[in-house]
Amino acid sequence: MENCRKVDIECNKWFQRRILQDVAEQTVVINPAYPPLEYGELDESFEYPYAREPHPRYKKRGAVPAFDMIKFSINTHRGCFGGCSFCAINAHQGKFIASRSRESILREVDLITKMDGFAGTITDLGGPSANMYNMRGRDQSRCQKCARASCLTPKICDNMDTHHKEILELYREVRNHPKVKHLFIGSGVRYDMLLQETDDAELRRDHEEYARELIDYHVSGRLKVAPEHTSDEVLKLMRKPSFTLFHKFKEFFDDECKRIGKRQQIIPYFISSHPGCTEADMAELALETKQLGFQLEQVQDFTPTPMTIATEMFYSELSPDGKPLYVAKTPEQKKSQRQFFFWYIPENRPQIRATLERLKLGKIGRLLLSRSAKAEGKEFFPSKERESNAEYREREQQKREQRSVTIVPKKVGEKGRWENSARRERRAAQFGNASGNNERRDFHANRDRRDFNKNRSNRDFNNGRNNGGNRGGNKNTPPVQFSSRRRGK
Ligand code: SF4
């Protein structure tokens, strides 16, 4: 966790340092990224004479569905300062936004309108987050010394200029292009920037103007946003804003759609089994989204992604500040979380009912399973309750802590739990070196030796080759070196 935190800090800096870590007899080197590109420096790489077609090797396999999505879409910038803990964008594109110039983007619009099959619709004009185009800190010298992972959470940095003027002007120019009938925004929008609490009336007007134009002209029928979860504790670990902001944004969206007379939907993205997320958190997510009228489709189960702090939480079962964390890892634990997304499928109800009874979730359970609660006007939003009721917040926090102790038995060698060094150290501190885990390792070592002796006739064949497939077997055979650093020896 400590190593990952160091990498996380370095890759969020303006001027990064090289990181070295000794691993056995070798050293892992993470080279620093170049300082962020200035406005327009990206243009050249976007304006080479690309074929704008899938690679010819795919021709035999027929149409590429992903290509249809991106064929008429335009990238405006790279980088994202959201800093979500499960996302690797900051590791490979950076926290600071590198934007293409307005002229370069408009040249690409021209090019696209001349492409075969273009019928007047540009499907996306965005980047990792659609509304971060050309955004930066007001005082660049402050940004150059800053190592915050996110400019948006836990609070939007007072130095970040969240004006949307430039991206709005770009939208207007593109939709006024004679050959463009529709310009849709397919990339995710950071609605928390649009709901920023500020005393600056002009900035509030700017945010509202962007939100209205987006909803009025640039939604293809479904606007993608990513609240990712509803539980504050999980959102904190994800480095995402509170779900109450999503409530506010949805209210605004629905009112605006009604005002302009368009039937449009918000499509919210959610993740289950994120480190720190429990079944009770998922039950709360199911209830909140049910009451908001969603039957979720765009959901995913957490997948560890290299170079992210969430992946480190997943393996170490620790939060970034070193506290033990519940992590759903076995297929059963993950399935039990995922089922809550699909509470509306009748076949899932018995299993969901059993889980809710086991968790003793009372009101949340009753409302989630009820078919008539909404019609009877019974509603309960835990996220809103937490925000307005300090007593409820405290009670929930206590329950959560109790649950995290009892929810997963921390037995040594429990089936399905993964082995890792952080857990080994915790166990060593808890049980001493004579833990059951060490005994189990010895047993495996003996078994390997037994297997090896059984296959004695293969020994000569294996000698001089990779002995990795016969782990712990012939202790006298030196391991084959794969590293290019050793070739010269
Ligand atoms: S100073 Fe603020 S705006 Fe600049 S990088 Fe740090 S958090 Fe982001």
Q: State the strand order across the main sheet.
A: 9-10-11
Bound molecules: iron/sulfur cluster
How would you sum up the global shape? globular
Number of helices: 21
Structural class designation: mainly alpha
What is the first-to-last residue Cα distance? Answer: 34 Å
CATH class descriptor name of the largest domain: Alpha Beta
Verbal overview:
By secondary structure, the protein is mainly α. The chain folds into two domains: 34-54 and 63-220, 2-Layer Sandwich (Transcription Regulator spoIIAA); 243-265 and 273-408 and 417-432, no CATH class. It has helices at residues 2-10, 43-46, 65-70, 89-92, 102-113, 140-144, 165-175, 191-194, 201-217, 232-238, 243-260, 279-291, 309-316, 331-338, 349-359, 363-369, 382-388, 390-406, 421-431, 436-454, 459-462, and strands at residues 19-23, 26-30, 73-75, 77-78, 98-99, 121-122, 124-126, 182-183, 222-228, 265-272, 299-301. Mean pLDDT is 84; it is low at 406-418 and 434-489.
Task: Give the gist of this structure.
This protein has helices at 2-10, 43-46, 65-70, 89-92, 102-113, 140-144, 165-175, 191-194, 201-217, 232-238, 243-260, 279-291, 309-316, 331-338, 349-359, 363-369, 382-388, 390-406, 421-431, 436-454, 459-462; strands at residues 19-23, 26-30, 73-75, 77-78, 98-99, 121-122, 124-126, 182-183, 222-228, 265-272, 299-301. With 489 residues, the protein is mostly helical. Strands 9-10-11 form a three-stranded parallel β-sheet.
Labels describing this entry:
3-stranded parallel beta sheet; 21 helices; 489 residues; mainly alpha; disordered C terminus; Transcription Regulator spoIIAA; single chain; two-stranded antiparallel sheet; binds iron/sulfur cluster
